[in-house]
Structure formats: structure tokens, C-alpha cells
Amino acid sequence: MTPRFPDGELDGLRARGAGHTATEIAQQPGLWPEVADLVGGDHATASWLAPLLAREDLRVVLTGAGTSAFVGQVLAPALTRLLGRAVEAVATTDLLADPAGTLPGRPTLLVSFARSGDSPESVAAAAVADAALEEVHHLVVTCNADGRLAAALASRADARVVVLPPATNDRGFAMTSSFTSMLLAARLLLAPGAPVPVAELCAAAETALRSAGELAAVAARGHDRVVLLGSGPLAGLAREASLKLLELTAGAVVGLHDTALGVRHGPKSFLRAGTLAVVFRSGDAYTRRYDDDIAAELRAALGERDVLVVDPALPDGVPDDLRALPAAVTAQLLALRFALAGPGTPDDPFPGGEVNRVVQGVTVHPWQP
């Protein structure tokens, strides 16, 4: 697989300190088939998961920190529908801070997402779950075979570690291909009977990549605040897209995330002249009525050109957790273009170390159930 950027401008992007981020955004349509093949060939993990997912008494919790947590937020509503059982998204940062409130004493499958697996919360959350629960099983989906989380759980009979292809372990500051690859892998692992049209998803991502020039024109207009809205699984994507803007621009562009219905309940006060609104449009005929309503309302408030509706080029019937994959590519490109419109270096937006690629400064306090 040879990563490429659609505008043929990779050399210039490297010079601007964006080479890793641009490459990792652009490589996603080439990575997703690799991820699908890897998961499809992992019969040992499938056999390990099958009896667990068949248990009606098992609580399924999707966890991670930051962008990794948002993988779970995209997937939880979809998996709840597909599996016919409640699937919860609980960030490791919440789990670690409040174990008693987030880990009730039920048998649990804890699905941990981790780009590096070296964040302090990743290992600590797994250890706290072990201490809090009489029965816990761990599924780790990670991009780094050498991470602390993978090393801690790889040899345990009550755990499985799925390591994605090395290229998914983004070298840039912000998670891009790691986010979508872990999302795709987990969807395939946890709902093995549900179809995933990988070729169509890749084609939609290629179409999104070709919009890079249009998104550069949007970013050049100088917006310093963006409201990002999504419903159902796409609410998690709106949160992730908001974080991408904040990270890659080093806080110069502030994103507010909410749902199509929720934004009217106070957060709409964030809007002012010059705000950009991004609506991630659902593929569900019922849900997208609400998306279309808020998009029309925002156009009336902000003007036509300051409302961007992200609607991936996918066939009818592709569910929103999968639509999130090519929609994420658009969100990543938009954040990159905003970063490049300013003076920053997206691969390392915080050269002074104020914010780190792998979180630092966390003291993990001992906890007793």
C-alpha cells in the first residue's frame, strides 16, 4: 500500500509539518481492507468471543480515552441494535475516576481501544476492572503490539489482544487512521453476522479525499468556531470531529459538539455570525429528518455557505456507525485544512509539550473495592 494525498502536495505538507497527518488521513481506504482481512482471519478471537456474546447476563462495555473512547460512542448504539442487548460506552477516564459508579458487579466484557496502549489510564482501567469485578473478560483492540496494555493482557486466558496493521499506529499527534481502523475492527469482531460493505466504504472515503480542495476553501474563510452535530452513532463522530479541530489547530479553532435535537437546548447560544456548522447526516430515513431540520435552521441563521452537510456517497441501507468511517475522513481533512490555514504544525501542534501524543502527568491512585 502506497499512501498518497489527492492533491499531489505531500512534499509541501511535509514542509508545513503535516506530512504524517496528511499521509495517515489519505491511507485509510487502503488500510480498511487490510483490517477486514486481519479480523476475518482471526478465528481464535472469533471462537473466544462467540460464547461470551451469547450470554444474556454479560455486560458489554466499550472503553478508551479521548479519541479511543469515541470509537465506543459511535459503536455502542449500533451494537445495541445488532446484538439485541445493551452495549455501553464508558471512557477509561470515567471508569478510573469512579470505579464504583461505572463497574457494577456483573460479569463484563471490557473492550479496550488503544492506539498506543501506553496511556496511563489504559492499563489502570483494566486493572481496576479486575479488582472490582468477580468476572471480567478483556478484548483489546490496539494499533501497537508493544504497548503496555497489550503486554499486560496478551498471555491471559480471560483476554484477547487484537493488534491491527502497523500503519494504523499513527505517527502524527492526532488519531486519524487509528480511529477508523479500530472502529471497523471492533464492528467486525463484535457483530460478526452483520454485513460490512468494505469496498463501498473505501470508495466513499476516496470520494471524501477528493473534496480536500473544497474544504481548504472553507477553512480559508477564517472561522474560529465550529458547531458539529450528529445523531445516534454520529453523535460520537461529532465529538471526535470537534476534538480533531481543537487538537490540530492547537486550540485556535474551537469546536462544539452536540446532537441535531440537543443543540437547541442551550448550546445554540454558541452560534454567532461567522460560525461554521457541520451536520453529519444520518442514513436512517427517520433520523435524518431531524438532521435536515437543524441544517435548514442553521442555514437561515448563518447563511448557506456556512453550513456543511456531510453525507457520504454510500448506498441506501448502510448504517450510521459504518457511515461514520468515510464521514470521519471528511472531518479529519477539514481539521487539517483549518490547521494549515494558520501558522501551526499539525504533526506536532504543541511543540512545547503542553499536550502530548501519549498522555502524561496522570497519577494513578490505588483503589480498593
From TrEMBL:
SUPFAM superfamilies: SIS domain (SSF53697). Residues 49-199, 215-349 form the SIS domain. It comes from the Bacteria. This is SIS domain-containing protein.
